[in-house]
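Milestone M4 deliverable, item 7.
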Amino acid sequence: MTTVSSTLGRIVDGRQRRKSRWLFVIAVLLVLAAAIFALTLVLGQSFTPPGDILRMLLGETVPGTSFTVGQLRLPRAVLAALAGLSFGMGGVAFQIMLRNPLASPDIIGISSGASAAAVFAIVVLSMNGPAVSVVAVVAGLGVALMVYGLSFRNGVAGTRLILVGIGVSAMLESFIAYILSQAPAWSLQEAMRWLTGSLNGAQLGQALPLLVALALFGGLLLHKARDLDALRLGDDMAAALGVRVGQTRVVVMIAAVGMIASATAATGPIAFVAFLSGPIAARIVGNSGSLLLPSALVGAVLVLAGDYAGQFLLPSRYPVGVVTGALGAPYLIFLIIRVNRSGGSL
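Output delivered:
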């Protein structure tokens, strides 16, 4: 009896420690994201007093601040945070579902599909604004379904889906290169800015559709968090625990693609954020709980910090996608080596 009570006590204590660690990580990431967000508003090419920013946020017209912060810095920071949350949560959902850290939308063609559609819409159809975003979202969903269908054979194996996705991504990148080679000068610059992943010219109006997509698809993923965590144990074990594996995969895929495509439509394909957020969150959280929220917050931190660094901390100004791409490429090589040696999942 004493042994059973002792064992139960250790189990309860272990669960409490894991929960406490998860909450601590969430709190630290929230504080870090909020600090970078605030830094973005206060310090740019010039310093803006926090008091002036607060007055502006409360609706008062403050000379200088209302333009510098209200029209330039604030929309950029809001869009960066929302895009980072979307890329982070959508990316880790794919990685968990397929139990492979390489199964990122950057790698398997979803971002390339949205980008190819956007470039075609800008260069060939002369579209702009919200219309381009709609085309990008629809194309991202279409490419995801195509990759899923091509890789389906008595179920979907993660490795097969990744290989099919890489092939589809390569074809789409070739299509993008061809379209750009034929593009007139007046649309080439807009297409290139979109492809790089940039927050230049951000407006608060762009944030609203992304906020709606984040609330809708993010809420759906969080609702499936327990089932998604069970999939980390493998399909057979998840099914034994009562998870409807096929249904869960479809719901998670639609929600994750919706988030990734919506973020890509708003900011362009910010390189490697969806790929990096999950593994970084997994290192921090360990086995302490769901990776969805930690990965979303890591994504927000990466985009906010990358954009600030690209604007003010480097010798020249660079779009955020260039900064995150420079960080992500070495990590991709490291992760490929690690997975090749040990097989690996989040």
